[in-house]
Amino acid sequence: MCDVCAVFGIGDHWTDAAKLSRNLFPARDIQRHRRHRRERIALMNRLVEPAGLVCEDWDGDAFLLTDRAGRTRVAASLAEFWREAEALSGQAFDPLGVRFDGRAPQW
Known about the structure:
By secondary structure, the protein is α+β, with helices and mostly antiparallel strands.
């Protein structure tokens, strides 16, 4: 295990199901997985940006959250992401309560 990341062996979240869905063409699965992660991270950034947070992909296996002060947190899964976002921002998040009509969420 890498001492830096400490996420080895955590296990995949259900949202990463497309990671290796077909063993015949693993390169396509990896490309699809990366595309899905980019789309997911773009959406996550829309949700956390009003709280002053930015989310980035961390080696395809975790999420790196950063606030305006430069503090960072690493989340190994999407479920952990919301806990880390709340801890870093001091705000409660309800991703199911957000409207996707272009208006900023009211946390």
